[in-house]
Design goal:
This protein is an alpha/beta fold. It contains eleven helices and eight strands. It binds adenosine-5-diphosphoribose.
Length: about 300
Amino acid sequence: MASVLETADLKGIAQYIKSGKCKNISLMLGAGISTAAGIPDFRSEETGTSPVRRTFVNVYSLTNESRPSGLYANLARLNLPYPEAVFEINFFQNNPTPFYTLAHELYPGKFRPTLTHAFIRLLSERSLLRMCFTQNIDTLERRAGVPANKIIEAHGSFATQRCIKCKTPFDDTKMKEMVSRFSEDKVVPKCEKKGCKGLVKPDIVFFGEALPSAFGQAPRIIKTDTDLLIVIGTSLTVHPFASLAYICPDNVPRVLINIELVGDFGSGDEDVILLGKCDEVIQELCEELGWEEELLKLWEET
Ligand code: APR
C-alpha cells in the first residue's frame, strides 16, 4: 500500500497534516510533556532540575550528592518498600502519608501548561484533534484549554476525589486546602459521611485499579478513526495504555516525539521518530506547518 507520507520525517508529517488527508490526529501522552512545567517524570535518570525535583532532592535525598532524577528514584527514599508503592491501593490504605506528601508537591494549580500542551489545544482549535489519550494526572491538558470531550485521562487525575470505602465524593475546595497544608499538619483527608471515616483518595488510577470506563473506547478510536498517531513523552512501559501504540493500522503513520526511543518504534513502515525535547520538536513542527505564531499565542494564554 502506498505511503501517505512523502518523506518519513518532520517535513513529511507537516506535509501530510497540511494535505487535508489527515483529519483525525490522536495523541498518546506521558509525563515527559510536563517535565518542562516543573513536574518530574517517573523513570528518567534526569529530566532537568525543576523546582519540584529540587524539593524532592532536598526532602528525600539522604545524601547531598544525589542527582535530580525521576519521581520514582526520589520517592524510593520515602520509606517505601519500592517506588511504585506510592500508587498502590493496599499500601495507601495502611500508610497514606507518602502519597499525600507527593500530592502536596504535584497538586494542580502550581504548574503552567507547556508548549506541548498548547499544541494539543491548537490541534483541537483546527478541528484536527480526534482524541488526546493522556497518562498524566496533572490536568494540564484541561488547564491548556483542551475541550473535556477531547481528553481521556487513562490514569485518572487530581480533579476529583472520593472515599475509598463508601465512594462518597469529597469536597474539592476542602481537598485542595488539606493537600496544600499537608506538609505542615500531615492531616490525611477522611470521609465525612456519618460513621464512615474512610480514607479519601483523588480519582487517580492506582496500580491494580480499573482504568476509567472512557478508556474502553480507545482501541476503536485508534483502529478505525485515526489518520495520524503522535506519541509524546512516555516510556510506553505501563499497560494497557502502552498497548494502544501497537494496534495502530499499518497504513496510519505513527510519530514518536521523545528524548529516547521507546516501544517498537522503528518497526513500522510508517513510523517517524523525532528524538529530542518535546517542546523543541513541537515548535519545529509548528514552524514547518506555519502555525508557530498561533502556538505561542495559545501558550501565552495559559
Ligand atoms: N521531551 C521529550 N521526552 C521527555 C521529556 C521531554 N522534555 N522529559 C522526559 N521525556 C521522556 C523520557 O525520556 C521517558 O521516555 O518521557 C518519558 C517518561 O517516561 P516515564 O517517566 O515512564 O513516564 P510515563 O511513560 O508517563 O509513565 C507511565 O507509569 O507509574 C506509572 O501511572 C504512572 O502514568 C504513569 C505511567
